[in-house]
Amino acid sequence: MSLSLNDITLTYPDGDTRLTALDRVSLEVPRGSLTAVVGPSGSGKSSLLAVAATLITPDTGTVTIDGTSTTGLGRGELTELRRGRIGIVFQQPNLLPSLTAAEQLQVMAHIDGRSPAGARGRAMALLDAVGLADQAGRRPHQLSGGQRQRVNIARALMNDPTVLLVDEPTSALDHERGTAVLDLLVRLTHDRDTATVLVTHDRTHLAAADRTAEVRDGRLVPVPRPAK
């Protein structure tokens, strides 16, 4: 397993009490597979993703990334773990307007302290993998919504992660472009052997996933995968 959540409980302050966002949730995601997590707004999907990304520490339970337990790790150690092993695709691409598609990726290598010498070549290889090699010199305003999301995905892969966490990647796209992005995520998951978790409210794309689960009132319930 590359990503393992075991008996996770997460609560938030709510006046004089605490609101339970995740209630004894367990999830195993092998490398080379994509697990889709669905559920309505406020069900706990985003909290699940934040815990998996080590951005939030749960009240109880353990998170294991590529064999490394996050229990007891300090802030700096968690940051290093995210940089080296976790890629995050946020709902909004949030690309820097002044940078080209290739530079969006190259800046990640700079943040990670990697040599700039190989960053350009890796950025171009990833843009080619998402079908945007010919758009490498374009800035965000020159790209379509689907193209910007593809840059967002390529950027998340720049550190060669073992775990890829994807938050509502098709929410701002029409069905055709959304389907193309989902197909891309499935292909990259298998080609790059990542353990991918896709959080979405859109059930129309679930047939593309290897596994599906639903968050209901903070609990994670496996659901049958629709026939392809």
UniProtKB/TrEMBL annotation:
InterPro entries (UniProt xref): AAA+_ATPase (IPR003593), ABC_transporter-like_ATP-bd (IPR003439), ABC_transporter-like_CS (IPR017871), ABC_transpr_LolD-like (IPR015854), MacB-like_ATP-bd (IPR017911), P-loop_NTPase (IPR027417)
Stored SUPFAM superfamilies: P-loop containing nucleoside triphosphate hydrolases
PROSITE patterns: ABC_TRANSPORTER_1 (PS00211), ABC_TRANSPORTER_2 (PS50893)
GO molecular function, one term: transmembrane transporter activity
Record carries keyword Lipid biosynthesis: no
UniProt keyword list: ATP-binding, Nucleotide-binding, Transport
Record-annotated ABC transporter domain positions: 3-228
Gene Ontology cellular component terms for the protein in this record: plasma membrane
Name by which UniProt lists this protein: ABC transporter ATP-binding protein
